[in-house]
Input
Amino acid sequence: MNLQDFSMMRHELILTAAAVLVLIAEIFWNPAKKRSISLFSIILFSIVTIIGFLPMPRGFLFGGMYISADLTILIKNILNVGVLIVLIQSVTWLNKDENTEKISEYFILILSTLIGMDFMISSGHFLMFYIGLELATIPIAALAAFERYKNRSAEAGIKLILISALSSGVLLYGLSMIYGSTGTLYFNEIRNYISGSNLQILAFIFFFSGMAFKISIVPFHLWTADVYEGAPVNITSFLSVISKGAALFIFIVILFSVFPVIIRTWQKVIYITSILTMTIGNLFAIRQQNLKRFLAFSSISQAGYILLGIIGGNRLGMASVIYYIIVYIFSNLGAFGVVAAISNATGKENINDYNGLYRTNPMLSLIMTLALFSLAGIPPVAGFFGKFFLFTAAAEKQFYLLVLIAVLNTIISLYYYLLVVKAMFINNNENPIAKFRSDFPTRFGLIICVAGIFITGFASIIFEFIKKLSFGV
Amino acid sequence: MDILTMFIVIPVLTITGIVLVKDIRHVRLVSAIGMGMQLILAAVLVIWYLSLRHAGNTDEMLFMRDIVWFKSLNIHYAVGADGISVAMIALTSLVVFAGVFASWEVDFLTKEFFISLILLATGVFGFFISIDLFTMFLFYELAVIPMYLLIGIWGSGPKEYSAMKLTLMLMGASALLLVGILGIYFNSAADGNTLTFNILEIKDYVIPIQAQRVFFPLTFVGFGVLGALFPFHTWSPDGHSSAPTAVSMLHAGVLMKLGGYGAFRVAIYLMPEAAKELSWFFIILTTISVVYGAFGAIVQKDLKYINAYSSVSHCGLVLFAILMMNQTAMNGAIIQMISHGLMTALFFALIGMVYGRTHTRLINEMGGLMKVIPFLSVCYVIAGLASLGLPGLSGFVAEMTIFVGAFQHPDLFHRIVTIVAVSSIVITAVYILRVIAILLLGPTNNPHYENFNDARWFEKVSTITLIGSVAAIGLAPFWLSSMIGASMQPIIDKILSVNPF
Output
């Protein structure tokens, strides 16, 4: 192993270095100026993000356990950008008095979960995949319980850790069956031994269920709303966007590269679960009053749409899923950014509280509207293109009925997104949320999201680039 | 930059201008200038188009422009216009221009109102110039969404309910449409050839009949909902009656035409075999629309509801004529779209102006308006007469052509539905004349009305623009019908090539 090999793991290594640096900084930082650690960490992470975009070698490490390819580098960079936005959006919240003690913990935990995701994304072996997955999950549970003096936050942390443990158990059980029937855990070796025997189908179902917990696919979604509601807003946005994006990516890669032989089986499974996920996510979202719960259910239904890109097992499908992850990062972080800004300023999180918001805070309302329209798939914002490509991918493999169900579901989703728009623009309110000016980081984070929402859609080069790197079954 | 793209660029620039100015008066001024330029541009387009045709240019589409957008899916930004799109663009410019003046007195969130209105117009223009199904669909959705805010914020009555109903029904229609478009796309070329969204390329290929049977109904209903196809017309009365004046004008006048235009440009043009097979079913539905809409209008008491049901009837006639699939009837369909677009916009503008004075839209509470506001009342009579098909105005030309075309079919079914549909002319006369009698004639039953001012300058701009156009089509229909007829030829050829009558 030489330096060249190490540089293949550059993303993970510099992230580790950054996490250690924050840890050291915490020790020597002047306690009176604790707040400036956020600035230090964000600058550090911006550097990490920029370094990620520099050219780097591709190849295998540890005998194929670790893979560095164009696609993995791309998705790591996408996640880096997403995390950067989350970090910028968190500054206001971290500056609150009750949180200043733990600022560096926040950054260290976020960075370590990102390291876990990067390892998971790059894995070429189920052991590496599992280690990455656990490393990605456990710090999030700590983060969900970040406001531990609040019952709900502590509850969210416990729920998340228990559910992760359960799902990991299920997943591992599946992996053990795969090992039992194929004698290996290397992705590229397993695919040669998958024949579709009953044991392997069972193993696949366990693997699928384990992943379904992480991506919150119905019927494994029950933890989502509670955890999203209880956790601090920024952690919720991290969970719903970054964690989900990473898990979806490795999920589709494993489906396409490890289980191509049993494609008929997983198409059936995905067919049913995607319909359930979209419909149940949407129907439950209609009734929500708390915006975090609302966005939690909306993110469940979004996962249902994303499954449409997976089901075809085609190259267009993989491209559209990765593209949608980008779109989803910007849109959802935009929506959560507004929720966080208002929650930080006023502590209000209910849809009713937003009545008449446009009169007092027009910019925030417009950004929220754009983000929600993007989630609903309304042109000219990026969500329209993302959804269109997902549906095109499913239609390419003749899943027209599924596409019809999905599009009708987007109409349901449009209904509840419009309810929020209606609250902000149409409903009258005696005491709307007072006019306030968000601080610089909040505004900066939102501007990135809005720019992303517009550019990702119109700039076809992004989609074409992803399409070039993607592969099908 | 080509002239057709200008139709999108000017509204976008206008919106930018509105965002930048502060004062309400400047907002109105910028909108009026922008849409005035759009109108001039439309006039230039019509003249340019006619002169190109006169010079012997026989391409199916003129002013073509093709830019690759998403290469791997073969999605292009492709625009082009034939006589039909040119006519629709001219109609849209007229109605939007009149709409800006009809909403001169909007004083609540004025800036946002004009931005949404012009955004809506952008979607409509984009739709009519597109020859790529993807961009067409994009512009269709772009046109629908501002409606929600326009009705929800500036509407009247049960506006939130109507806005939501309208938006969800039209987006539901776009759901069917999306599946239809994807189906067309994946059947748009023989195996191994590059798939395409381009209408002009797809029409040279015969989509397999099994696929047509699935995707024709989806596409036709998808567009049909926007054209108020029975039983999916219910958004229209609620939406129109709750919408502010300019939005009703634009919606009934232009947006509903997207349905008719799309139905023949996409559904029938690309899938004529299935259209022929299934037309009987949709003809029955449209006949119901035509007659039911007219009967519905009779029993209404609210001016806007009357006009909304009348729109259901007239737009039903458009779809009815399109489904007849012969040259005469389809020519009539296009003329009817334009004629109805202008006169219904005129109607809604006048209703808005009357409402602005009387503060009621119930006809029983008003009377004798002819004495107090003669200008508006005469305009109303003209609009009414155009609507019931008086010779010399546009409605007559359109309906005449449609029914003559429909009656050309020798079989019993087509004859019967034609006769049923013709009855709508009589019913139309009933509700139009009834409204004129109650509303305009007779004694002025409210002393308060004596103080009314007749039309102000911006109201006159709005109405005269529209009346002039209605009369122009009625008196000299041939330049319009020849422009349309020539462009209709490739579509008729395609229909005839696959199933000769």
